[in-house]
Specification:
This protein has 253 residues and is of the alpha/beta class. It has one domain: Metallo-dependent phosphatases (Purple Acid Phosphatase, chain A, domain 2, 4-Layer Sandwich), CATH 3.60.21. The chain has seven helices and twelve strands. The strands form two sheets. It has a six-stranded mixed β-sheet, covered by helices on one side. β2, α1 and β3 form a beta-alpha-beta unit. α1 packs parallel to α2. The longest helix has 23 residues.
Amino acid sequence: MNINLAKGKKAYFASDFHLGVPSFEKSLERERKIVRWLDSISEDAQVVFLVGDLFDFWFEYNSVVPKGFTRFLGKLAELSDNGIQLVIFTGNHDLWMFGYLEKELNAIVVKDPIDITINNYSILIGHGDGLGPHDKGYKSLKKIFTNPFFQWCFHRLHPNLGIGLANYWSRKSRAQGHEKEQEFLGEEEWLWAYAKKKESQKHRDLYLFGHRHLPLDLKVGESSRYVNLGEWINNYTYGEFDGQNFNFKTFEA
């Protein structure tokens, strides 16, 4: 994907909103904050990359989607209608996107890491789930989650049952993994290791991921960076590229 930013325009990046948890009230408060951020960037944004796990669970049935998130989806529709390109990556919590957001928001939905170039600045970007040397258990699960037959089976469940089961599983998984999300693992940071391996094969200026939940900005080789975008439950971090420089920021710090 090649993007040429017009004069005065920027590209923005954010990840891991996890709308829907831990409660309706907390999620609504966070949703309003996300909408304020989208309003704040609307004047100079040319393209907005939302890098996965926007929802803590999302599954599109043929005629049903999870209820809620109306302020967020409405704001995305407004941005799109005003000519701002939306690029949405699926994450491990919302990988079951099957065309609804493309149709409603005119968004580009991406399911795997991709190389993009913005004004000759090269970026490898993806959510980050299932990459690197670890996470073997999830890698096996992802093969099941993305298998067309198992997706067809889940489609057969009534949405009340299917979405209820998925929300229960998501909350249980979050409770078990919360402490590890806040701990910097040093050389064991698997997405950092993944970026180093990819840099040894081909140079990029930036390796940009979500999933990890810990905001990170680390050196890769002599002239490249690995940035993890963090999340919007505690950190509210995002990336901004003005055509020359990538800056890592916090909204309403």
